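User: Sequence in, structure out. Go.
Assistant: Echoing your sequence, followed by the structure tokens.
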Amino acid sequence: MPKSRIRKKADFTPPPATKQAAAIKLTNRSWVAPVMLAFFLIGLAWIVVFYVTEGDMPIKPFGNWNIVVGFGFIAAGFGVSTQWK
């Protein structure tokens, strides 16, 4: 049986780069971690103070809404954490 001919393929050459890759400029976000932790700690402290003082502090007219304020600070900390890179 005759042997088949092998076709040579040209080596792949990538197209010339007409555009240079855009440099990604990362902004300095060193403020994110301290602010995030501060919100977490303020929220936790707010809730703990509310329970320890049996509702007399931090803001007595808020009543049980002080818990919502504390969790609001914690939620704000999670919101700030989305900016961390």
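User: And one key feature?
Assistant: The first helix runs from residue 32 to 52.
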